[in-house]
Amino acid sequence: MSQRTWGGRFSEAPHRLAQEFNASWSFDQRLALVDIEGSLAHAAMLAHQGILGPEEEAQIRQGLLEVRQEILEGRFEWREALEDVHMNIETRLIERIGPVGGKLHTARSRNDQVATDLRLWLRGELSSILAELGVLRRVLVQEAGRFLEPPLILPGYTHTQRAMPVLLSHWFLAYYEMISRDAGRLQDALDRLNESPLGAAALAGTGFPIDRHLTAQTLGFTRPMRNSLDAVGSRDFALEALAALAIAQLTLSRLAEEIVLYSSFEFGFLTLPDAFSTGSSIMPQKKNADHAELIRGKAGRVLGSFVALATVLKGLPLAYNKDLQEDKEPLFDACDTYRASVKLLAAMLPGLQWHPEPMAKAAESGFSLATELADYLAEKGVPFREAHHVVGRVVRHCLEQGKELRDLSLSELQGFHPAYQADALELTRLETAIHRRRSYGGTAPEAVQEALKAAKKELV
Ligand code: ARG
Prior knowledge:
binds arginine; Fumarase C, Chain B, domain 1
């Protein structure tokens, strides 16, 4: 009991189960390095303000650096009885440098300490996730560029029914746009969390003449948080990051789903690289898209992390409550999961082997060019609604005759509407249809080329 920093008030040791239940060291040791960074800044500020003597501060700094070394070298012995990362490190500091180590916690509480640690940790984590996302965004742009000359055509779908042909490059750039917005959301969360809770102490500030601006500056925060209750009691910064991560994982999940579909025998649009697929233990013919499926499945997990923390926060009174210790595992897990998914996709996408023939065949069959024939009539002045109806009858005729649109003769077409001329037959060709979609953001090669240029510019 005596080894606990708060042991003074107590005459009985905690129950074994109570101690185990309360402890967070097994997961919050991930905060060890930022905990020490925060302590170094705090001690330096205390000395600057004359609250610690220069000699005392030097001893504390030296001691903290030694403890950091122990941690980095894996020599540090974590003790459950010391509950969490903060008390493990502080106790070790006092063991190493003696009672002066006990002065580090002057004008500070674990409440502002843990909030500071988590913000520092998340700041670093989000920055490195954003760097990984930069790699994935580059890969998407590079793949979009690879299939433009000659343009590879993919059926575009609505309701999972063939709708209109699009360029494969256009498809890649759609994910580029979505993932770039995900990056923007993570960046927003990062910008907003970068404020310092340190010095809010337990919940109400402190009577010591501390300088919160100084510690904020030392730690690279934009400013100290304005309200001490808010500083120690809020976790919306973590929740915002989780929301952004959940949305971002959902995007990856949609991309993964398309990879699963397109690599299936039924679609046959792409073959997965062997290095990114698995076999079956019983069916020798199988080549499964396990990794894409896992990315899809992990969306449930990341969204679950968001819901877990949101539920912890709902109805929680100010300021610190131990419930807040539950903020860490979902946050750590969501960051790990998303990062791993991003890295996996960036490595896998360039290895996908796309198959132009089945893609083009699927793109032009299933009447995906029917809209062209309706647009043709509309351009000749036929009201679009009427044109739509005419082409509906053309499609039904083809279905009855077992024909595709390109099999129709001009006289057959004219049987449905006299405005059809020879150039209408051109429209039933895939390339013509694609080239016509030149509107801004459309799938014509020129439009996609423009989008690609803009994306490349964003990435420099
Ligand atoms: N391990 C605790 C957490 O993660 C640190 C803060 C504890 N503060 C307290 N007053 N018990 O939230």
